[in-house]
Amino acid sequence: MTDHRWAWAEIDLSAIDYNIRTFKQLLKPDTLFMAVLKGNGYGHGAERVAFTALMAGANRFGVATVDEALALRAAGITAPIQILSEPPVTAITDLLDADITCTVTTPEFLNSLSGEAMLRQKTARYHLKINTGMNRIGIRPSDAASFLIEAATLPALQLEGVFTHFATADQINDWDAQNQLELFEHAIELIRGAGIDPGIVHAANTAATILMPESHFDMVRVGIGIYGLHPSHDTYGKINLDPAMTIKAKAFLVKPIALGEGVGYGLTYQAFERVDIATLSLGYADGVPRCASNAMSLLVRGKRVDQVGRVCMDQLMVAVPEDLGIRAGEEFVLVGEQGSERIFLDELAEKAGTINYELACDFGLRLERVYI
Ligand SMILES: *Cc1c(COP(=O)(O)O)cnc(C)c1O
Hints:
single chain; alpha/beta; eight-stranded parallel beta sheet; six-stranded antiparallel β-barrel; 19 strands; binds pyridoxal-5'-phosphate
């Protein structure tokens, strides 16, 4: 690796490979696997994850934005890529040129898609999103069949799939998730009843893939799980996953401070004995949650040590017992394994009052990624 900066995210691609293969064991042999790569692959780097996912048996990819989709095409990914919400109408020509599959939720978008596809003498594949209760995007289940009957009159379109998304699948035996599932199944029946083939029927995110096998239908859409992270406490013990991301930094300065001296902005930490302070080039611009200042642990020489003082934009400080004799250049782990100790991203997320999803994305913003 280039030594421009002493902080980096190590991404273990073999863990991602293992996680996808593990998920595929939960599926029937003909169930498709969509690897969800939005948020730059949940901070893991979408392109490298995409190639690993294909080798592990992923069939398709899901992204959030037009640019995420185009970047994957530019990187040489030829597998189907779906934008998981309706993109801006102004992006349609670029999407058709790059053969990106759209999610559709409004007749206006579908009309434009049809018109542009006809001009280009192409067939635009799309998936209809049905809102079964999350109330984020999608059309009502009762409107799905009539929407598709209308859509069938438009040229240059192919309905490739129909899907929904769960709000509460991460809670075991959840009534709302069951209710969403029933509404979705009913909508699919109405679509079929109207003589329309819904194509690829899909609903399950990571949590539902693990906890609700009856929701697998023709394809599952797995995001957080392929990175080795759990969507909630309820999936622990149900599947064995291997976290792919490790956050590491080398101390670039270690110095002793005396009893009573403070550390960082606001001097929110004060030494109660002589202690060594190690400064790492990791800060909130790298994704370290500032709100967890003074509450985080790191690993050095396989031991837990305390982060002290407020996290700065580009640096944070760690108190290390004098007898460890830590020197500049020593490697610290903020998330991951060192020796026999391990800090899970979930532990850090809990201290920051958020979820592993958010922290993983944030660690993808500035840190250099090193693939192993
Ligand atoms: C993000 C997303 C997923 C993946 O969710 P995970 O909980 O990370 O598995 C699946 N489907 C849609 C529509 C999404 O937006």
